[in-house]
Each structure stands twice: as structure tokens, then as C-alpha cells.
Design brief:
alpha/beta; Rossmann fold; Alpha-Beta Plaits; 7-stranded mixed beta sheet; 16 strands; binds ribulose-5-phosphate
Length: 222
């Protein structure tokens, strides 16, 4: 909790007046959003693109001006969390189910800042099951196609029901084990019919802010 708060707040220091920023989703991005809210109430002028309905609600409650991605050409920076970060800054995201909008916003962003606590740092991606957003239409067919990549997978559920993303899709949580080539896997997965997007964010992050439980933070730059 403390580590997440520290890292979220540290990342907010990169925001400057007049910027268009992306706001991530999850319990670490939460603290960055709360900090941006405080900065806005103290006079900071920014516009923000949220990466989920949940984030849009929180940001609006914080008084942050929201814009649609379609209204802006690009974003100056985005602050988002991650489920795993490897030494090359490749990420697994989507534990919170917002990976599609998160990846679109990240790709439209000049500088992607990732905020994590130390538990998210890994040598290789893959211990955390890779979330893959798929279309509900014939999802079992898509699941079989994905499982040809030697992985097992489970359809994500919430309260016993299939989890529905903000884009009305489903999520498959896929156990690949150690992911040796994240760049290759993300390309291969996205070629499959029915796959909307996958949670590997390869070569996208510029800065990773890591919060440690003893209260210190580390800023890693590419
Ligand atoms: C949501 C995400 C989150 O950023 C990721 O799951 C990390 O969340 P948290 O900071 O709560 O651990 O990708 O889709």
C-alpha cells in the first residue's frame, strides 16, 4: 500500500502544465490519479484521457478534465501500473481487465511511465498469466487457437459470471510459463482471429518507478 502510494505520487511529478496525460487503471495508478487531482485543485491545468470507465469515474470525481482520445493527436505522458516488468521494461498488463484501452493510450503516448511496487519486478515475463482480450463470438474457438501456442488458459470470471471488459469483450488468462520472446509472442497472438489485444506491452515503457516496502523508491530510465 505504502509502496504503491509513493510510486504513484512520484510519477505525478513528471506532469507539467498544459500537458495531455493518460491515466492508467489499477490500485497503483489510483494514487497517481489522486495526486493529479490534488495538483489540479492547486491550479494545475491538464487534460486527461482515461484508460477505463473506472479511471474515468475516479478522475471526474477528482475534478480532472477528461478528453476523448479522438480529440487529441497524441499524449505527452501516461502513468499506468503493470502486473510484471522485466529488465528490458517489457510488461504484462491487464490484471485489472483494461489492457485494450491501456495499450491504445500507451501507444499514443510520448512517454509511458510505469508505477509498480517491488513485487512486480521479474527476470522473465510469464509467471503472471497473460491476459488476452478476445471477442465473445465463438470465444472457445479462439481459446483453442491460442492454446496451440502450448499454453493453458482460463476464461476470466467475476462473481461466477464471465468478466466483460469495458469494450464488451472477454479475457482469457493464459499460462505460457516463461515468455522467452515477448515481442514475437505479442505479434503472433494478435494475428489470431478473435484476439482483440494481448497484455504484453513490449518496448513501450520509458520510465519505471518502483516502490519498495521499506519506503524508498527507485526511478529506472531506459
Ligand atoms: C489493469 C492493469 C493494471 O495496471 C495492472 O493490473 C496493475 O494493477 P495494480 O497496480 O492494481 O497491481 O493492467 O488492466
Amino acid at each position: 500500500m505504502k509502496a504503491k502510494k509513493l510510486t504513484g505520487e512520484k510519477a505525478a511529478e513528471y506532469i507539467e502544465a498544459g500537458m495531455i496525460i493518460g491515466l492508467g487503471t489499477g490500485s497503483t495508478a489510483y494514487y497517481a490519479i489522486k495526486k493529479v487531482g490534488e495538483m489540479v485543485r492547486n491550479g494545475l491545468k491538464v487534460k486527461a484521457v482515461p484508460t477505463s470507465k473506472e479511471t474515468a469515474k475516479l478522475a471526474a470525481e477528482e475534478g480532472i478534465e477528461l478528453v476523448e482520445l479522438a480529440e487529441v493527436n497524441s499524449l505527452d505522458l501516461t502513468i499506468d501500473g503493470a502486473d510484471e516488468v522485466d529488465p528490458q521494461f517489457n510488461l504484462i498488463k491487464g490484471g485489472g481487465g483494461a489492457l485494450l484501452r491501456e495499450k491504445i493510450v500507451a501507444s499514443a503516448t510520448e512517454k509511458l511511465i510505469i508505477v509498480v511496487d517491488e513485487s512486480k519486478l521479474v527476470e522473465h515475463l510469464g509467471a503472471f498469466p497473460l491476459p488476452v482480450e478476445i471477442t465473445p463470438f465463438s470465444w472457445k474457438y479462439t481459446q483453442r487457437m491460442i492454446e496451440k501456442f502450448s499454453c493453458s488458459s482460463e476464461i476470466r470470471k467475476e462473481n461466477g459470471e464471465i468478466f466483460i471488459t469495458d469494450n464488451d469483450n472477454y479475457i482469457l488468462d493464459c499460462n505460457f510459463g516463461k515468455i522467452k520472446d515477448p515481442v514475437k509472442l505479442t505479434v503472433e497472438l494478435n494475428k489470431l482471429p478473435g484476439v482483440v489485444e494481448n497484455g504484453i506491452f513490449a518496448e513501450m515503457a520509458e520510465i519505471v518507478v518502483v516502490g519498495y516496502n521499506d519506503g524508498h523508491i527507485e526511478v529506472l530510465e531506459k
